[in-house]
Amino acid sequence: MGFDQSTETCYYRCPRCCLFPGMKSICGLVVLFLVVLPSAVAYDPLDPTGNITIKWDIVSWTADGYVAAVTMSNFQMYRSIVSPGWTLGWQWAKKEVIWSMVGAQTTEQGDCSKFKGNVPHCCMRKPVVVDLLPGVPYNQQFSNCCKAGVMSAWGQDPTSSVSAFQVSVGLAGTSNKTVKLPTNFTLLGPGPGYTCGPAKVVPSTVYLSPDRRRKTQALMTWNVTCTYSQFLASRNPSCCVSFSSFYNETITPCPKCACGCQNKNNCVMSDSKQAHRKGINTPRKDNSPLLQCTHHMCPIRVHWHVKLNYKDYWRVKIAITNFNYRMNYTQWTLVAQHPNLNSVTQVFSFDYKPLVPYEAINDTGMFYGMKFYNDLLMEAGPQGNVQSEVLLGKNKDTFTFKQGWAFPRKVYFNGDECLLPPPDTYPFLPNSAYINPIAISTMEVLVLMFMLIL
């Protein structure tokens, strides 16, 4: 069964719909449904409660408005906000202005010519706010600010998954009844993909004093919830997966043009002089990638290798390769779905955390780099690779190497689903092979003993 590029796209969106040629029409209906109803795809079955919540707490009233503490919390288990960070925007309900900000700034001031005395920080009807860079003076800092807009995933590092700033708003209401909530919130993180709902008034936030003996509360609080859709972020996947195994010499590569071939004309050959030219790793303001020339044209490739088979365990090697010369991935995450992840025995050079969105099912786990060791995936080149091995316990009732069972059902990198190869190309078990796992491990022991004797 052949898979053309359109079918690969279908498999990426709906794998089960494309396993059989007779279900092509169903695949087409699924793709049409996802396009017509983009809000439906914001639901992630592996992280059903994942979102970014923006909380506004009015902490004091001023002569013509209020001072609010704005807190952004990333409750997504495995999707972080990477460099160059988040960008938050909204539309004022009336003619509000921003007198001052601490911990963040707007990208434009706008026309403030009508103000004769103090000039506001921003007079835009639709302000756009960005985080401050690390190292700003203390009088410009606010708690959980000044990280260049980078926010870790909640499942990876909850303490770094929050960003906050303070804003003083003028020409606004000075009571709970006269304040009008901002509308049309937008969030870039750093690219498109997030859709924000309307602001909703919620019970006021309660604060504890440092000695935890006194409670105070905000004068007014409202929340905005933003959810992520990969299909709104990009027409094509941003990563792909390749497979190999010890029982078959065939390596299953990423599908051709897995991430689209629109960058094919300006890619860089790995052995060319341009790949080593000074300044090639400098990021662009528009975040445009500079990819290494490959048949798949993906920034990220994940390779899953079934390495060894023992009597009670089996071993997998995972390698992540970066093909983008202009991108370092800070605090990257890798999520895999496989039924045997419920018996992870040891992970050797990555950190690992099981993801259990549904209590009865434990088949999903998150891998991420060890701090100060391999939590930074470098740009394309000799250092643009991280790898680890995973030891998994066997359930003899379900374990098999037949029909691609040993390979993952889904793979996500930094929260985006990767394109897997078509099922008919997976490394297969040779017909002449005896598939008794005990016999296979015994043979490996005999070969090892023979090599030691020699």
UniProtKB/TrEMBL annotation:
- UniProt xrefs under PANTHER family: COBRA-LIKE PROTEIN, PROTEIN COBRA
Would you indicate the residue range of the signal peptide? 1-42
Matching entries from Pfam families are given as:
COB_C, COBRA
**Listed GO CC annotations:** plasma membrane; side of membrane
Keywords from the UniProt entry: Glycoprotein, GPI-anchor, Lipoprotein, Membrane, Signal
**Protein's recorded name:** COBRA-like protein
Give the way it sits in the membrane.
Lipid-anchor; GPI-anchor
- Which InterPro entries does the entry link to? COB_C, COBRA_pln
Q: Which family does it belong to?
A: Belongs to the COBRA family.
Intracellular or extracellular location(s): Cell membrane
Q: Name one GO biological process term.
A: plant-type cell wall cellulose biosynthetic process
**Domain COBRA C-terminal: from-to ranges:** 238-427
